[in-house]
Amino acid sequence: MKKSILTTLFLAAGMLLSAQTISRVEPLSWWTDMKLPLTLMFQGEDLQDAQVTIQKKVAKKKFVATEGLQVRGQHNAESPNYLFVDVAVKEAGTYRFVLKKGKKQAVWEYVIDERRPGSAMRPSFSSADCIYLIMSDRFVDADPSNNSTANTLEKGNKNSLDGRWGGDIQGIINSLDYIKQTGATAVWPTPLLLDNEPDWSYHGYACGDYYHIDPRFGSNELYREMVSIAHNKGLKFIMDIVTNHCGLAHWWMQDLPYQDWIHQFPEFTRSINQFTTAYDPNASRYDRIMHDNGWFDTHMPDMNLDNPDLLQYFKQWAIWWIEFADLDGLRVDTYPYNEKEPMSEWCKAVRNEYPFINIVGECWTRPSTAVAYWQAGARNPDRFNSNLPAVMDFPLEEAIRAGLATSDVKDGWDDQDRRISCVYHVLSQDMYYGDVNNLLVFVGNHDMDHIADMVAENDLRRITLADVLIATVRGIPQVFQGDEYGQRSADMSRGHSGLRRPLAKESELTPEQKKLLDFHSKLFTWRQGERVIHKGATRHFFSENNTYAFFRYLEGEAVFVFVNASNHSEKVPVDHYREMLDIYGTEGTDVLTGQHISLGEGLAVPGLSSLIVKLKK
Asked: Model's pTM, two decimal places?
């Protein structure tokens, strides 16, 4: 009897010494009734050419052969420590993968869940929404205990503008009521996935693990709970993702599946940052390669989406997070830096799984024709279709800022690019877009100085004009944290680090900031119920004296907007607008005060103010 026990222990020890190891399998789980075929990436030690079988769990420790999850095929990577396995999903359950290679064997349990009813047809964010953008680490620190963790390199340091300040998921949860009170209907936090760079990791855009939330923010489970709480409060949730690059600290950088998993050069080579190479008929092949393949920054390896296994990995990753966390949409960072054809395929795959999901790409370029190229349905001469539903309207942002950055200007050629009427010229380019109502419109984000830093004389009245414009023009308004009350950067000489400040407490706001916040909240709350603003067409009129006027109209209703960015009271030139007023009438209601307004002769709008009238004929 003793000899039998010793023999068993010896044999077990020998099996452990010779066993293969599986370190991770991604995606972490999957669901029934998904359209995208599932390919699992196994990573561990010596997995190449392993024989793969699948068993289903039927009791606590009992697994049996099954057809509920079947191997359709498998293939090796270049590294011997990866194996890609194609599986067919037929039924939910807990399964065990057995990987055998000679006398070696490794096992891994894997869960297939039932897909939630209606998941595929989920609605998304749209022109009916207002998005509140959060710089996650610099928002609210509700749980100081996770500011530093044993398994992450950079520790919390609120004394450094470049350090991690401790904003976390719990801080976002605690602030959802405030966000809702500002009139926002959707939340977009900057990336919350692990960024494990040794410094400057707080921004989150150098991903170290695509399937796990950074522990300094929280956990996967807390992230999912946050989305659920937001939904219960009537707020949608958008995930910020990066397909163009990962971080140097990503776990796979120690052992790439393929040498072309990322773009590699003999020495660091930065992208030339020329989006025009995607559509310029005169562009050289060299410039196209240097744009697509160059790295975004020294610690951000450029991903090669032409590698089919990587592209499949990113398709599944996006879909996994949407399904796991019940997300309402995606925002894609540095979109035009990606290879355009694979990204078009990526967008198509995500939209095939979720036909109504909205995806907005950061296409930081100008003019409007250049931005429009990246939106689905654009009339591109090369017939390229990105399949990307929404893009960010950087030309409009630039025009609004330019029109509010000078205390007063004269009519004339020299000042034409500094008047608020330069917004007119941007909107005159709308015919190039595939869908003007699916443009993200904004005057600030986490990568640019606060609007309060930029307006002339830091006059908060000018910010109300910016609010009015993004609330009433076509598109989806987005507001960056703090701009709703006129927050300013801590140190403009420090760029991004000085810009990204925590949310202020109400007791810290000045009377002027409280007044601006009240104006902002009333304006965007009103916007929520105005279909004419969400879906209506635009008719605008070129204005002089640093003013701008336009109508949003739809099926017998209209809203009239007049913005006076000058320091002087300006008369509303009613006769200019007869083509619209003869249809929709001259009587209406000031949407913010509720007062009756008659658009008759002699009506004037004070300097640095606006008028929004809901017309009723």
From this structure: 0.95
